[in-house]
Amino acid sequence: MAFDCGIALFLPAWSQGSTLTAEYIPVDDASIDTYYDSNNYGNDTKLVLYYSFGTSSQKRLAYIKFNLTDIQLPVERIISAKLRLYLTDGLSSAYTVKVYPASSNNWEEETITADNAPGYDSDTLLDSQPVQDVGFYEFNVTSAIGNCLGGYCSFVIGVEGSWTKFASKEYSIAEYWPRLIIEYEPYTETQTTTITETITEYITETTTITTTQTDYVTETQTITDVITETATTTITETHTEWANETVTVTTTITPTTTVTETNSTIIEQSIDYQALADMLMPIVLIVGVIGTLLSLL
């Protein structure tokens, strides 16, 4: 009887630090027999192997299928994947059991027979080891898991020897059912944020241009030379009176001639207002002090 047993229903993944481990039980498992090529053994409690390789007319192989659609995707890296089987019956001598990937997942345990079973490539051996004593045996199937993630994964198991029996998922003790144990690292998205910091430095450069304006002032200096020439003319009038007394009257007339000579000299000079201000500043200060003193009187 087929039933879909996924990780979410029965065997949830558990964490080991930064890794996760998931266990799966089969959704389908069955044996096929090439001698009875139309028989179906999907309800058997054991997966029976018998001279699976070689020229024997009767060969028995086992098919196991797992549903990996519940695995946490995406997966960063598969660390390991192991197919665990439980040998229910001890053997008189050790036989080598081999595991291959099946060429297709298109089969079900209720209908699979030797006539319709998927094939396998004998060059794609996943793992092999001898078995003899009752107990668990693990086969390394890591190389096949990458192609199965998010879907189904089928394996073909055979033996180089006589009757070899492993517990199927119909076995009475669930602890002995086949298991696929996958250890993996979940995908970790690394987001890189690039922060570009733009620093704008403003440099203010002040250029002071001092323009000195020179005004030319035409100063007219008038020099007046006054030349005074004094001429004295003495006129003596003598009046003779018949008297014995003589009176002499002297009248002096002084004509004055004024000669005015004007010499105009034009002086052009450059005035530096800054220097003039520097020169006048002490005078202004002195005048201010004098004004202050006068106001106090």
Overall 3D form = rod-shaped
Beta content: 35-45%
CATH topology of the domain at 14-186: Jelly Rolls
Major sheet: order of its strands? 1-2-12-6-9
Structural class: mainly beta
**Oligomeric state of the chains present here:** single chain
Query: Rg from C-alpha positions?
Result: 66 Å
SSE string, helices as H and strands as E: EEEEEEEEEHEEEEEEEH
Sheet with the most strands?
A: 5 strands, antiparallel
In angstroms, what separates the terminal alpha carbons?
A: 132 Å
User: What's the architecture of the domain at 14-186 in CATH terms?
Assistant: Sandwich
- The number of distinct helices, counting runs of at least 4 residues, comes to 2
List low-confidence stretches: 1-12, 238-247
Quick check: average pLDDT?
78
User: What is the strand tally?
Assistant: 16
Q: What's the level 1 CATH class of the domain at 14-186?
A: Mainly Beta
Explain briefly what this protein structure is.
With 297 residues, this protein is mainly beta. Helix content is 9%, strand content 42%.
Written overview of the protein:
9% of the residues lie in helices and 42% in strands. It is mainly beta and 297 residues long. The protein has a domain of 173 residues: Sandwich (Jelly Rolls). The strands form five sheets. A five-stranded antiparallel sheet has the order 1-2-12-6-9. It has a five-stranded antiparallel sheet with strand order 3-5-10-7-8, with no helix packed on it. It is rod-shaped and about 145 Å long.
